[in-house]
Amino acid sequence: xxxxxxxxxxxxxxxxxxxxxxxxxxxxxxxxxxxxxxxxxxxxxxxxxxxxxxxxxxxxxxxxxxxxxxxxxxxxxxxxxxxxxxxxxxxxxxxxxxxxxxxxxxxxxxxxxxxxx
Length: 117
Known about the structure:
Largest sheet: 2 strands, antiparallel
Mean pLDDT: 91
Number of helices: 1
Strand content: 5-15%
Strand order of the largest sheet: 1-2
């Protein structure tokens, strides 16, 4: 007598392919959302850096009786801002003038952020 009670355990190739396609679709929908969160986080960090530089410039103006200061007088171990951490390869202006908005260019290579004190 032959044993006809064989079991087909496991997944077929079609079932595995369907699961892979579903995972790919879910990943394709999630990646843009993660990129938006990353972009927003970078922008907030750059804006926070601009606020710190602006506050440091205001303090420099008050202490030295001037209306313009270079970034070199603001950043350093003995200056107002100890270190400026770049998060998106942005470029900060080299000088700050009292009452003038500052623009940070090249944020992630494409965006410009303006901060008006």
